[in-house]
Amino acid sequence: xxxxxxxxxxxxxxxSNEQKGEHKMNFNEVFTNDYFNERYSxxxxxxxxxxxxxxxxxxxxxxxxxxxxxxSPINHPxxxxxxxxxxxxxxxxxxxxxxxxxxxxxxxxxAFGDYLITNYGFKLYKDSQPEYPLRGMTLKxxxxxxxxxxxxxxxxxxxxxxxxxxxxxxEKIESQLKKMPKVxxxxxxxxxxxxx
Length: 196
Description:
Layout: E1 2-6, H1 12-19, E2 29-31, H2 33-39, E3 40-43, H3 47-63, H4 77-85, H5 90-95, H6 101-120, E4 123-127, E5 137-143, E6 146-150, H7 152-160, H8 166-178, H9 183-195
Parallel strand pairs: 1-6
Antiparallel strand pairs: 1-2, 3-4, 4-5, 5-6
């Protein structure tokens, strides 16, 4: 079985427990392997598509004469935030090439996705039954059957509309990866809640 632990699923009780130094496990769904394989298909970012995304990001820095905060890799979260905060904005830059806001978000989503795949071992999946329109693309990190999920296209759209930053998401991911529970602990917690 695959156990889902969503990245930002928390409630006030969980936050107060964390502040006390306690960590209460929380997960949203339990999937069988068959259901997971039926719903999600692993995807690979095509090298040519990734190269195009990264060249657009690099071109943004060159054309705006902006020195990026992190020299390498170009798709570091701080650099991706710079494309939104410094200069005239990545969405306007893409419009100059007759590209839509959706394409600008896709470039940033793929660039950020590649960063997480390369540096943390996330895998990219296509969701055949997304809960929301911007969640057809999902990144998952698997730790012995416990999955951490995030939605790069949805997040890139939020970043482009100044509702979030890539650095904030990056920090949350690092924090969550350090405290991901084991399957046995999730099962104990789950069965304990059923008995209550």
